[in-house]
Specification:
Aspartate Aminotransferase, domain 1; 43% helix; seven-stranded mixed beta sheet; alpha/beta; globular; 2 domains; Aspartate Aminotransferase, domain 2; 384 residues
Length: 384
């Protein structure tokens, strides 16, 4: 049979505790969900501000569908660029403190298109070893020379930059690392860019809406700005809807419009989503109380699990990974939580390095103090 080899590889993956399967969620995204007709308290969504089922966003999406229809019908460069898209790009640029912004259908597509459009043969990309898969794929597809540095190791990065030849230099990094929850040292990275005439692409998928004044993200958190920074953020996490954007200098955005293949050759997202996102930006900007509640939940969780045999990794963000190590042990702990009505995903290689399987606990402003207390209680029970 032609698929025998595929099945053998799948069986080997399952034996290593690496098999992935989907679960079907019934109803909207929320801390309390239903899967297979069983209720769970969930700690694995990236809906950091609890906006994914916000009534104002639902209403804006409905109003957008009534006004613009269900689909865009064409790529942005053909006839798919709606006034809703245009208004959202202007609002996102202003929110990010950049001259211009460009919408993409996903963060993955934004990273693929941006890196591929800006660098190529003869250029060099410098990348943190714990970057998201989309940044890794983007740099390989760009055909630029790739130099990877140890996680947040500025000394090694400086050495690599010193050794680089001619051509454009682009440093790419997660701003908040999706599986560890820690932050990239963006001020130090920017200083290296200034010293070596490089660009910095910061993927702020997990910082946008959560960090910084009025949720403006990791750049605002560190208080930095520079024409050298190319800022990417997703709109399906803290913003609660879907899509992504890149904000940068006008010359960068014009280059992406003309050369980013994942933008040029993709049908535009439905304008109704842009309409909902315009409303979402207002909620994000006004969401200081949500962010403060989220910070209190993070402190509650870290304090409550401080004496657990298995330790939380260092993180001040909504991503709180509980390090387990062994793949099968991580799966077993996830399953034990599930049997007690708590849903937390086990993350295993290749998403994380070998020997660092973990439970990736994510908190949302929609969680209550009692929700977090329940998770702490059950994890202590299981530790005994």
């Amino acid at each position: 049979m032609p698929y025998t080899e595929l099945q053998r590889e799948l069986d080997e993956r399952a034996a290593l505790g690496l098999m992935r399967r989907r679960q079907v969620l019934q109803g909207p995204q929320a801390p309390h969900i239903v899967i297979g007709e069983k209720p769970y308290l969930a700690f694995c969504s990236n809906d950091y501000l609890g906006l994914a089922n916000h009534p104002q966003l639902v209403a804006a999406l409905q109003q957008g569908a009534a006004q613009y229809g269900a689909g865009a019908g064409a790529a942005h460069l053909v006839s798919g660029h709606s006034v809703a898209h245009h208004q959202l790009e202007q609002a996102l640029a202003a929110f990010a403190g950049k001259p211009a912004a460009l919408l993409f259908s996903t963060g993955y597509m934004a990273n693929l298109g941006t890196v591929q459009a800006l660098v190529g043969k003869g250029d060099t990309v410098f990348a943190d070893k714990l970057n998201h898969a989309s940044l890794n794929d983007a740099m390989l597809l760009s055909r630029a020379t790739v130099k990877r540095y140890r996680h947040n190791d500025m000394a090694q990065l400086a050495q690599l930059l010193e050794q680089a030849g001619s051509g454009r230099k682009l440093i790419v990094t997660d701003a908040v690392f999706s599986m560890d929850g820690d932050l990239a040292p963006l001020p130090e990275l920017l200083a290296l860019c200034e010293r070596h005439d490089a660009w910095l692409l910061a993927d702020d998928a997990h910082g946008f809406g959560v960090l910084g004044e009025r949720g403006r993200g990791s750049l605002a958190h560190f208080g930095i700005t520079s024409p050298r920074i190319i800022y990417m953020a997703t709109l399906g996490k803290a913003a609660g809807v879907s899509g992504a954007f890149v904000a940068a200098e006008q010359a960068v955005i014009d280059t992406l419009i003309n050369h980013a293949r994942s933008y040029v050759y993709t049908t535009a997202t439905p304008p109704a989503l842009a309409n909902a996102l315009l409303e979402s930006l207002k909620l994000v900007e006004q969401g200081d109380a949500l962010r403060e509640h989220l910070r209190k939940l993070i402190a509650q969780l870290r304090n409550g699990l401080a004496d657990l045999p298995r330790k939380l990794m260092p993180s001040a963000t909504a991503i709180q990974p509980l390090l387990v190590g062994d793949n099968h042990a991580a799966l077993a702990l996830s399953e034990a939580l599930r049997k007690r009505g708590i849903w937390v995903a086990a993350i295993r290689p290749p998403t994380v390095p070998q020997g660092t399987a973990r439970l990736r606990i994510t908190l949302s402003a929609a969680h209550s103090v009692d929700d977090v207390a329940r998770l702490i209680e059950v994890l202590h029970e299981l530790a005994q």
